[in-house]
Write a structure and sequence with these properties.
The protein is α/β, with parallel strands linked by helices. Helices cover about 30% and strands about 25% of the residues. It contains eight helices and 14 strands. The strands form three sheets. Strands 1, 4, 5, 6, 8, 9, 10, 11, 12 and 13 form a ten-stranded mixed beta sheet that branches. Helix 3 crosses helix 7. The chain starts with a strand and ends with a helix. The mean pLDDT is about 95.
């Protein structure tokens, strides 16, 4: 089973911590973020992991080498010359992720207790092109889904900006969820990405294709979902992990 960890970000929200250490290696509970995510993915049965790299990438390569890749196959998608953002990063890794089975994508700074196996199987049993992990957590940016769980739009509650490719779109009529930085994607998606080049957001890509292709949400009751890519979230993830270990 294939997975990708998005780990190329500069980590500007965590500066000055990330000035000399890549975000992926910032410790949470004494363990680098990247190690937490790899072990979670491995425990769910994923044994082939692609990691995109950019900022202070040699530290990530050396770290994984010292850990013997945690006993799984790891390939690197090299973005050292140009950071491609989420969508561009996934497309860049297409040669490593293409095949006959869906693959998992996991942000390196997202901490969650989601059952990855259940989420993966839910995607397989659906007709969706992509399945996005979401929660009811507070966020200024919300994805908008219809009653059948299909992505239809996006809203920024702070600015009032709304994005949708559906005609006469009324955001008040849709379910709002915050994206959790974890998705399961069918490899057919790469065919739809052919005209998208360079740096682009995966959410903007999803919004552009969702009128014709099913992008659905997945969530679980009382799910824990923490963005550790910012100082407050990093502290929250530390506290959460401490309760798990007790």
């Amino acid at each position: 089973m294939k997975a990708m960890i998005l780990a190329a970000g500069i980590g500007s929200r965590l500066q000055p911590l990330t000035e000399e250490t890549p975000k992926a290696l910032i410790p949470v509970g004494g363990v680098p973020m990247l190690e937490h995510i790899i072990l979670k993915i491995k425990a769910a049965g994923f044994d082939y992991i692609v990691i995109n790299i950019h900022h202070l990438s040699e530290q990530i390569i050396d770290f994984l080498s010292s850990k013997k890749n945690f006993g799984v196959t790891i390939e690197f998608s090299d973005e050292r010359d140009y950071l491609l953002e989420t969508g561009g990063g996934i497309k860049q890794a297409s040669r490593l992720l293409s095949g006959n089975e869906p693959f998992l994508v996991h942000n390196v700074d997202m901490f969650t207790d989601v059952d990855l196996t259940a989420m993966y199987n839910s995607h397989i049993n659906s007709n969706a092109l992509a399945t996005l992990l979401v929660s009811n957590r507070r966020s200024s940016r919300q994805l908008l889904f219809n009653g059948e769980g299909r992505l239809c739009g996006w809203r920024n509650r702070q600015t009032g900006e709304v994005k949708s490719h559906f005609p006469q779109f009324d955001p008040s009529k849709y379910l709002e969820y915050a994206f959790g930085g974890v998705h399961v994607i069918s490899p057919e998606i790469f065919r739809l990405m052919e005209e998208w080049t360079g740096r682009f957001s995966i959410i903007n890509f999803y919004l552009s294709i969702c009128p014709k292709h099913q992008i659905r949400f997945y969530t679980e009751d009382n799910i824990q979902l923490i963005d550790a890519g910012k100082p407050r979230g990093l502290e929250e993830a530390e506290r959460w992990l401490s309760t798990i270990k007790q």
